[in-house]
Amino acid sequence: MPEDVLVTADWVESNLDAFQDDDADLRLVEINNPTVTDESEYTPYEEGHVPGALNFEWDAVFTDETERDIVSKADFAARNGEGGIDADTTVVVYGGGRVPNWFALFGYWIYKYYGHDDVRVIDGGKGYWVANDYPLSTEEPDFTPREYEARGPFESVRAYKDDVDKAIEEGIPMVDVRSPEEFSGEVIAPEGLNETAQRGGHIPGASNVPIGTTLNEDGTFKSAEELRELYSDAGVDGDESTITYCRVGERSSIEWFLLHELLGYDDVRNYDGSWTEWGNLVGAPIETGE
Predict the structure, then answer these.
(1) What angle is formed at CA 48 by the lines to CA 42 and CA 49, rounded to 5 degrees?
(2) Most distant pair of Cα atoms in the chain: their distance
(3) Angle in degrees, CA 89, 28, 14, rounded to 5
(4) Please, which residues have CB within 8 angstroms of residue 61's CB and are 6 or more apart in sequence?
(5) 236-260 per-position pLDDT tens digit
(6) Which of 170, 177, 107, 96 is nearest to 130 (CA)?
(7) Of the listed 246, 258, 259, 262, which one is catalytic?
């Protein structure tokens, strides 16, 4: 796997001094949804995090809850600057959740949307870090603020409703990363989560590649060869445009990462409106069943 986008826990541990150095161009960022973290087996930030890691909560830092949209460019730049991050910083994200890095890779996708060159993720996320007894800290870092200049936005990584309409019309591959029960319409959202829709099912023409099928038992990602075979079986081989989606765009950002960043497929876009938009649209076509 390419180290410029995916790093091991061992690599992070070997660089912990730099991650805690105010002058260094390395920053760790833990990204979680607090409601998911409370229900997961992983340690909440306050009870222990990778030494030197900043706490960027998914809803507060990466979304605009009023507009049901991603964070604005100005707010994104301000929050990073406050954390001692600038455009030249190597940012390494990680998180927990019901699947490893559930919201961390949504954050990764936002960094790419706003043109951050060097952002990486810890393979296996926080669950792997905790389960394998890597060091934890309860000390919250306080880095000297920097001037952060966001770029873009780079729309080539993002899909909108019109793009989905075109994908249906032209037979462009779409990957629904939700559980088989969500895909079939048996359930609308994972138990206990608030964001929902009026109808269950999936977008016509989409293939179902649940997040769990991309992971090893320890929460790390499967090999590139295994992932290529998995997506090929779903009709995705990187030769044409591909759209990923889930419920609110976070799980689908994981498979956007796998397809675009790890496997190097050029034209992959994350539909962050996902099922909470599509399943609420009047007149939008929906399929149910496997």
Answers:
(1) 85
(2) 55
(3) 100
(4) 31, 71, 76, 79, 107
(5) 999 999 999 998 899 999 999 999 9
(6) 96
(7) 246
What are the backbone dihedrals phi and psi of residue 64, each rounded to the nearest 5 degrees, phi first? Answer: -115, 100
Pairing of strands 119-122, 90-94: parallel
pLDDT, the chain, mean:
93
Span 122-132, mean pLDDT? Answer: 96
What is the reported pTM? 0.95
Reply yes or no on whether 246 is catalytic.
yes
First and final C-alpha spacing in the chain: 32
DSSP string, the chain: --TTTEE-HHHHHHTHHHHT-TTSSEEEEE---HHHHHHSSSPPGGG-BSTTEEE--HHHHHEETTTTEEPPHHHHHHHHHHTT--TT-EEEEE--SSSTTTTHHHHHHHHHHTT-S-EEEETTHHHHHHHTT---B-PPP-PPP---------GGGEE-HHHHHHHHHHT--EEE-S-HHHHHTS-SS-TT-----SS-SB-TT-EE--GGGGB-TTSPBPPHHHHHHHHHHTT--SSS-EEEE-SSSSHHHHHHIIIIIIS--SSEEEESSHHHHHTTSTT---B---
According to DSSP, the residues that pair with 29 across neighbouring strands are 54, 93
**250: Cβ–Cβ under 8 A, 6 or more apart, which residues?**
33, 58, 102, 103, 105, 106
